[in-house]
Amino acid sequence: MSESTNPDALVVVEQDVYGVPGAVRIMINRPSAFNALSEALLEALQRSLDEVAASPARVVILAGAGRAFCAGHDLKEMRAVPSLAYYRALFARCSKMMLTIQRMPQPVIARVHGIATAAGCQLVAMCDLAVAASDARFAVSGVNLGLFCATPSVPLSRNLSRKAAFEMLVTGDFIDAQTARERGLVNRVAAPEQLDDAVRSLAASISEKPRVAIAAGKGLFYQQLEMGIEAAYQLAGDTMACNMLDDAALEGTAAFIQKRAPRWRET
């Protein structure tokens, strides 16, 4: 994975992190700018996500270097090229990267510390799971600058209730980690010194499961959410029928019937 060899790269990829086999950490590495998403960083992050998606990785941890998870887009860079064509291309590139997180077969866990604002909060919402330090804070604060956080509103409104999401979008106010958990933006909250342990625990639990079942389940989970209930049940039934014939499911059900631990054949 090309970004892993250079600690000064905008994105650093590490394999088997926390001692968990198949756990890959993608570190956004622009700490001097609170990991703001410059064009170069977006490109590096897209490349790393694509490479990891095609790899045998079982679970992905998305993290930020330095004092923050991610402060959103690089506003100085955005202001340097004030044209409609440029902004459309920039947000299209960012949206592609966000959708890659949802479409990759591995579950993606956001490891959140410091602040996650605007597109940084969007990143948290797009990840499948999120673990936050108790002192982390979240906001979609573009409205404070006269810019409604339109693209962050897409995943935010799919994580939180409509009214809770809309309140964040129109006030720009921060919420703390516990509130984020109560509203559905993050799964778990841990003390800052225990954040890595909490992420490790969740990653290890996923890594122990058959990769084929997790990948099929993730794909089904998001696809059915956009369907009517009848079509969702049809897709779910087809997915489960195919899964039942997979070697992992055959072994797992046999192990359950025989009252023994499953012996997964995956490497």
Describe the model.
With 267 residues, this protein is α/β, with parallel strands linked by helices. It folds into 2 domains: 2-207, Alpha-Beta Complex (2-enoyl-CoA Hydratase, Chain A, domain 1); 211-257, Lyase 2-enoyl-coa Hydratase, Chain  A, domain 2. The chain is built from 11 helices and 9 strands. The protein has helices spanning 39-53, 75-79, 84-103, 119-126, 150-159, 162-171, 177-183, 195-207, 211-225, 229-244, 247-257, and strands at residues 11-15, 23-28, 59-64, 108-112, 115-117, 129-133, 137-139, 175-176, 188-190. The strands form 2 sheets. Strands 1-2-3-4-6-9 form a 6-stranded mixed β-sheet, with helices on both faces. Strands 5-7-8 form a 3-stranded mixed β-sheet. Strand 1 and strand 2 (23-28) form a beta hairpin. The longest helix has 20 residues, at 84-103. 38% of the residues are buried. The model has no long low-confidence stretch (mean pLDDT 92).
